[in-house]
Amino acid sequence: MTDLRIGIAGITGRLGSLCAEEAGTALSGGTSRHPVPEKNITSSPDELAKRSDVIIDVSNAATIAEHAKCFSQNNCAWVIGTTGLDNAAQDAIKEASTRIPVLQAANFSPALTVFLDLARQISAALPSYDAEIVETHHRQKLDAPSGTALAIGEAVAQGRGLSLKDVARTDQNGRRPDNAIGFASLRGGQVIGAHDLLLLAADEEITLSHRALDRRVFARGALHAARWLATKKPGLYSMADTLKNE
């Protein structure tokens, strides 16, 4: 699509500001709790949707239901990077995807997208190995486990035919249950993001690791997703879909 107009919901946040820089002249504006009209930054998602073809949403979980309704009404494609969503928010996303193209990702990194596929495969191949996920982030991060860690857990559970909500273990007290998928969250300094999946047996172990070295990898991935999604039909897509040969 030529002359694609890309909006950023949450444009003044850490990732939102980087997405705005990467969008360049395609940027149509953004939303923030503190509007800056001369920079096309508004507090109204409806106003942003009216001047955008696709919106990258890196705002916060509390806005998802409103955005689902607003972007659907304006026929605006929606890339969602917001994590920590409850069931009501997920239902709103699913409903919106029947009317507009929606891409939801816990992490926009291409390498992490491949990591999730590998996690699914290796967990299926080694179903008896204990699975532990360790994630480290900067000291300002609010949610734990991270959305990416939970996505890794989902991949492990899918590979083993399990439901993550039934086997997730965030409290390490007591004996480790069979089939548990453990999570450990570390917070400190300004770590952009580090994730390790450990599969452990009595006589060997294997670790998959991902380290983000520059936050721009997420912004560039989000922009790639936005440009890819803009031409798609209504539906719910993932970052893995953007890496497939078409």
Question: How many strands, which pairing sense, and closed or not: the largest β-sheet?
Answer: 7 strands, parallel
Question: How many structural domains can be distinguished in the coordinates?
Answer: 2
* Strand fraction: 15-25%
Report the order of strands and helices.
EHEEHEHEHEHEHHEEEEHEH
Q: What is the fold-level CATH name, i.e. the topology of the largest domain?
A: Rossmann fold
**In whole angstroms, how far apart are the ends?**
16 Å
- What's the architecture of the largest domain in CATH terms? 3-Layer(aba) Sandwich
Report the C-alpha radius of gyration, rounded.
19 Å
Superfamily (CATH H level) name of the largest domain: NAD(P)-binding Rossmann-like Domain
Helix segment tally: 9
Task: Give the CATH class of the largest domain.
Answer: Alpha Beta
Helix content: 25-40%
pLDDT < 50 stretches:
none
Structural class: alpha/beta
Task: Please report the total strand number as a whole number.
Answer: 12
Shape: elongated
Q: What's the average pLDDT?
A: 95
Reading side by side through the largest sheet, how are the strands ordered? 3-2-1-4-5-6-12
What's the quick description here?
With 246 residues, this protein is an alpha/beta fold. 35% of the residues lie in helices and 23% in strands. It is built from nine helices and twelve strands.
Entry keywords:
246 residues; 7-stranded parallel beta sheet
